[in-house]
Amino acid sequence: xxxxxxxxxxxxxxxxxxxxxxxxxxxxxxxxxxxxxxxxxxxxxxxxxxxxxxxxxxxxxxxxxxxxxxxxxxxxxxxxxxxxxxxxxxxxxxxxxxxxxxxxxxxxxxxxxxxxxxxxxxxxxxxxxxxxxxxxxxxxxxxxxxxxxxxxxxxxxxxxxxxxxxxxxxxxxxxxxxxxxxxxxxxxxxxxxxxxxxxxxxxxxxxxxxxxxxxxxxxxxxxxxxxxxxxxxxxxxxxxxxxxxxxxxxxxxxxxxxxxxxxxxxxxxxxxxxxxxxxxxxxxxx
Length: 286
Fold this sequence. Notes:
Elements: E1 7-14, E2 22-28, H1 57-71, H2 77-90, H3 97-110, H4 114-127, H5 132-141, H6 153-172, H7 182-206, H8 210-223, H9 229-241, H10 245-257, H11 263-277
Antiparallel strand pairs: 1-2
């Protein structure tokens, strides 16, 4: 990559499931995944942890109250957060804690409580490395709040990439659970895949893997029913660096269509991309 691409994207409100846009703002300036424990016991090692005790009726009732609140249309997010925080405090070793922490992470995100979102998401993944709700959220969010001057930038980029790739692997092989409509499952799965590919695309752009970055961002914008304008912005930047200016024009046009924190930037970049594209032969039609 010629020059240095520096950007900070501030996380805003996120709707995890459904057709809501994964909204974000950005400001442009000058141009090892978790592993499962081994199967079996090594001689001399500590015995495996016992299975958690069956939940009590009170625990089941508390979890049902939380999931009922989560499922309500027009749900009270503050009440959901209160129920979730009360649950993990009262039942710190519950088999349901990973799911509760993942839902709390999404609720915190909707309230723009970014630090709480990351803390809850990390806790959900610590308890269950295959927790796709938390993996997809953190894979999407982490690259959007990175500071290029952060001394731990390389480690955070690698962690984000690990989350994204692991989540894609899980989602691509996931089968529909009982009790969920096929259409709802397909939509939710596609939106989460879009989030993972979005995060991967930004990580790869940061690390100069431009062709792979463009491919990931193309998937992100294709899989979502309502693509995030930030993904079109980042896709346009990847195309610019690859000198694919005709493709840049298309990406910036789609970004500029919707009001967002990157709309003005995309309009400006669109004008420049059109000038650059005018000097190139049009790409062959597929």
